[in-house]
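Input structure tokens:
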């Protein structure tokens, strides 16, 4: 039994859908029956492990946990030639934040909650419990791998895996093209939940606003999208309890305008984020 096949069977026994990768981190090509994707791939595009073809194909959708499939004669031949093992994070209920360079790592360490990390050739994979939409280049050097994507297996990593945070989910959210004009003065709804609000701890709230300012300030491209996503993350955490004040909002708007955003765009982005969250 090859080392890759042994690893694959071990991962599958823990509910992680796996597939073989050839050199270059590329899945094995389509089988003859599906040459040039003649079958359309439709049976496999939503649920992993349903590929009925005689060979591993359709990339992430071919990932399986069934040892009978993984250990079949056709798959064994693929494992013999495989350069690595890949897995479908979304199929295992996981999300991988792929950090490809030092700048991306620095951003993650000051923005994302600590979780399990796996060293890669150029950076790290940060693993979170929970699945979401995959997307490439959500910011410089950062890809999201979860549903309908595969990631290379590089080991179990270190640290305790934590729940997928909103700050990661909003990275793939695009600001609506149609904006609703808003007033120049912003008043955050004071919707206090039962019990004392944890955000009333000054240090907690101030740290969150400071991190949001830093995220906007460090944006080197896609400033519009970064401002919107940052506003969305702030409102998702602090917008329902009435803790945000005009002073907090002014700090965010000031950071955005220092990057070239207009006051009108700041208002529109804030209004769109609040509308998306139902505030």
């Amino acid at each position: 039994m090859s080392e890759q096949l042994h690893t694959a069977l071990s991962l599958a026994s823990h509910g992680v859908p796996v597939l073989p990768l050839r050199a270059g981190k590329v899945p094995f090509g389509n089988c003859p029956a599906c040459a040039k994707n003649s079958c359309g791939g439709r049976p496999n595009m939503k649920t992993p492990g349903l590929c009925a073809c005689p060979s591993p194909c359709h990339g992430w959708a071919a990932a399986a946990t069934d040892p009978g499939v993984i250990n079949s004669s056709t798959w064994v031949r693929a494992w013999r030639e495989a350069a690595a093992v890949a897995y479908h994070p979304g199929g295992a209920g996981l999300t991988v934040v792929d950090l490809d360079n030092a700048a991306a790592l620095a951003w993650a360490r000051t923005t994302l909650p600590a979780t399990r990390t796996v060293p890669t050739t150029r950076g790290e994979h940060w693993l979170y419990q929970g699945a979401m939409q995959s997307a490439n280049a959500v910011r410089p050097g950062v890809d999201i791998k979860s549903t309908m994507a595969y990631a290379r297996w590089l080991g179990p990593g270190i640290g305790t895996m934590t729940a997928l945070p909103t700050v990661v989910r909003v990275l793939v959210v695009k600001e609506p093209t149609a904006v609703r004009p808003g007033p120049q003065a912003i008043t955050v709804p004071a919707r206090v939940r039962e019990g004392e609000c944890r955000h009333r701890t000054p240090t907690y709230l101030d740290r969150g606003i400071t991190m949001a300012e830093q995220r906007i300030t460090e944006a080197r491209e896609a400033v519009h999208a970064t401002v919107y996503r940052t506003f969305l993350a702030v409102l998702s955490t602090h917008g329902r309890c009435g803790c945000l004040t005009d002073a907090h909002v002014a700090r965010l708007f000031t950071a955005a305008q220092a990057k070239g955003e207009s006051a009108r765009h700041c208002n529109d982005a804030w209004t769109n984020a609040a509308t998306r969250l139902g505030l």
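Residues 41-50, 178-195 have pLDDT under 50 and may be disordered. The radius of gyration is 22 Å.
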